[in-house]
Amino acid sequence: MNVYYYRILLSGNRVKTGIAQLSVERDSSARIWLEKNFDATVLALHRLPGWLAETQRSLAKLFRPTIRPAELSGMLRDLAVMTASGIPVLEALRAVANEVGTGRASNAARLARRLLDELDAGASMSDAFARYPDAFPETVRNLVMIGDETGTMDRMLAESADHVERVSRMTADT
Hints:
With 174 residues, the chain is α+β, with helices and mostly antiparallel strands. 62% of the residues lie in helices and 14% in strands. It has a 3-stranded antiparallel sheet with strand order 2-1-3.
C-alpha cells in the first residue's frame, strides 16, 4: 500500500489536489488509476515516504467522517425520498450538505459535502461512496454500486437505509 500526493487537471480546466492511498506497486499504475477514476490528466504525482504515509494514515483516522448508524440511515433515507420524487442525486446531496445544526445535520452534511467533492471531481456515485469505507458499510457501498449500474439509485438508497437500521437494531439487542 503506497500513499501518493497528486495534482490533476479535471474537465473545465479545474485543478484538484489530494492524497490517495493506493494498492499499487508502481507509480505508473497510480497514474493510470488516477486518470481512469477521475477522468483527468495527472499534472503531478509524488509517492510519500513511508514515515510520512504512516503519519498521513494516523491523521486521516482522526479526521475521517464519523457518523452514527441513526444519522447514516436518516441521510440515506432523505436521499432516497428526494431521488424517488425526481430530484437529481447531486441536488439531493446538495440539500443534505446545506443542512445546518448540530448532531445529525452537521455529521450528515459534512459527509454529503465530501461526497459532493468526489462527484465534482468526476467520480461516480459508487466510487464516491467507496472512498469512505469508514462511513459506509460494505453492503451500503455494494447497494449504491447496483443502483449506479441499474439506474435504481432511489430504491438502493432506501434499501441501504433499511439495512443500516436493521444492523443497528441487531447490534443494540446484543
